[in-house]
Specification:
Number of helices: 16
Strand order of the largest sheet: 1-2-3-5-4-6-7-8-9
Number of domains: 1
Radius of gyration: 20 Å
Largest sheet: 9 strands, mixed
Distance between the termini: 23 Å
Number of strands: 9
CATH architecture: 3-Layer(aba) Sandwich
């Protein structure tokens, strides 16, 4: 299978059109006197749009992204984009452990860049050279530079694509996997489908079993499930739209960069560990970089496909490969009982509830993620 080097290059025409659209933005008024209570705050959005149009330097952001090695590969007949940061092998030491990192929504490969070089070259960051990983960061199907699959977008199907990428395209016999959100689901399916290939799976969010037939939920588990249901009722409007009418909302977001930014940053604020203050976690350059990637590739609509196809996801079976969780400190998960995770990950070897770092944990707390990945995989390397 052919692997082709790739560089991100957004044309001047696309950037000129983007700035022109931003300059013509029409803003709504707030529906609630409490800032952000009804979604993205119009006042903050106005500020961000002005920055995006007049101050944000996409070429500098593009150069920084291209400092990482990007590639395209055809897998299962479709184009897959990935960043590949090769591990640094210590002199006389073992080969770096291959590791695939999978992002979620509304995220991208950018989420994982802060951990990539630390994982690949630990000695350069004061770590043990023997902890080096060979880091692969694919873009999910339909996200940015990766094409949608030829068929439904499911976590199970994506796991099959990733397994082919790691074993057939890149030639790894065994590898580790890490992810959260959609990426967590893909990571779990990798462990479930390919136990002979997976050294271990590490999650920041855990898919909860829907099957309690053999053992009813405990009081603690039921309280969490009730709280999760209540949270989803308050937060789930975005999901219901994308699950049932994705093309309707995508039409507006594909035409309005301000609308696109509003849709994305609402989740970056709600789901990150920012205490309600978005810019304690995300500066404007980061937010504009992510929004520009979605805008320039025109993939916000195709990123919704995994929501529309969600009913086609079968329940994740029990996973027997070694498992780890560094639990996201986002509202929906921060009280997740360990016992619920152990119903799915039957060989849970690492459990950490750090109480910092939310939905986008690798972006928010890269050192924390790196430390936990090294600790979990260190004793498993001999089995690789």
């Amino acid at each position: 299978m052919t692997v082709t080097p790739f560089q991100i290059s957004v044309s001047d025409d696309v950037l000129d059109d983007l700035r022109a659209r931003l300059a013509r933005t029409r803003f709504t008024t707030a529906s609630d006197t409490t800032s952000w209570a009804a979604g993205t705050d119009p006042g903050y959005l106005r500020e961000l749009v002005a920055y995006w149009a007049n101050e944000f330097d996409w070429r500098a952001a593009e150069k920084a992204l291209n400092a990482f090695p990007h590639y395209l590969a055809e897998v299962a007949g479709r184009q897959v984009h990935f960043v590949h940061v090769r591990g640094v092998r210590p002199e006389g030491g073992p080969e770096p452990l291959p590791l695939v990192l999978t992002h979620g929504w509304p995220s991208s490969f950018v989420e994982m860049l802060g951990v990539a070089r630390r994982l690949a070259d630990p000695a350069a960051y004061g770590g043990d050279p023997a902890d080096a990983f060979d880091v692969v960061i694919p873009s999910l199907p339909g996200f940015l530079f990766s094409e949608l699959p030829d068929g439904p977008f499911t976590r199970q199907g994506t796991a099959r694509i990733w397994h082919s990428l790691m074993t057939e395209t890149l030639g790894h016999r065994r590898f580790g996997a890490f992810g959260g959100d959609i990426g967590g689901g893909v990571t779990q399916w990798l462990g479930a489908l390919f136990p002979e290939s997976l050294v271990g799976v590490h999650l920041t969010s855990a898919v909860i079993t829907a099957d309690f037939g053999d053992r009813p939920p405990t009081a603690e588990e039921q309280a969490f499930l009730d709280d999760l249901r209540a949270y989803d009722e308050q937060d789930g409007g975005y999901s219901e739209i994308m699950c049932t009418r994705p093309d309707t909302v995508a039409a507006g977001l594909m035409d309005s960069p301000a609308g696109l930014a509003a849709w994305i940053i609402d989740k970056y604020r709600d789901w990150s560990d920012c205490g309600g203050d978005l810019e304690t976690r995300w500066d404007k350059d980061t937010l504009c970089t992510i929004a520009t990637l979605y805008w320039a590739t025109g993939t916000i609509g195709s990123s919704f496909q995994q929501y529309y196809d969600y009913p086609l996801n079968p329940p994740v079976p029990r996973i027997t490969v070694p498992g780890a969780v560094t639990l996201s400190n986002e509202p929906a998960l921060r009280t997740l009982p360990k016992s619920l995770v152990e119903r799915v990950l039957t060989d849970l070897r690492h459990w950490h509830r750090p109480e910092r770092g939310g939905h986008f944990m690798s972006h928010e707390e890269p050192e924390q993620v790196v430390t936990d990945l090294r600790a979990f995989f260190r004793p498993l390397r001999a089995e690789a």
